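Sorry to interrupt, but I need a hand with the structure work. Can you supply me with one protein entry, sequence and fold together? No commentary is needed, just the two lines. Leave the record below and I will have a look.
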Amino acid sequence: MTSPVSVSAGVSRDGVVAARHIARWLGLAAAPTFAIMALLTAVLGGPADMLCSGEHGSLLSGMVPMYLLMSAFHSTAWLKLIAERRVVGR
């Protein structure tokens, strides 16, 4: 498996492993973060929501649907984690 960061470029193997570990956790953090943002925007509203939705806009306009879509698109990290756990658990 090739790595975008070469070990010979001055980055230790532990540094590469740590970077991959951090990237995985950041991927897992994205979906719940956007879901929380959608919930907070729906409950509290805000000036950005008023800018993104017109008075006669559809249900798909505004910040809440955007955050929900972003949460759905970033859920692949969670789906991979669940799939890995099911395979290991067999």
Observations:
- The two ends are 26 Å apart (CA to CA).
- The helical segments are 13-44, 47-52, 63-73, 76-89.
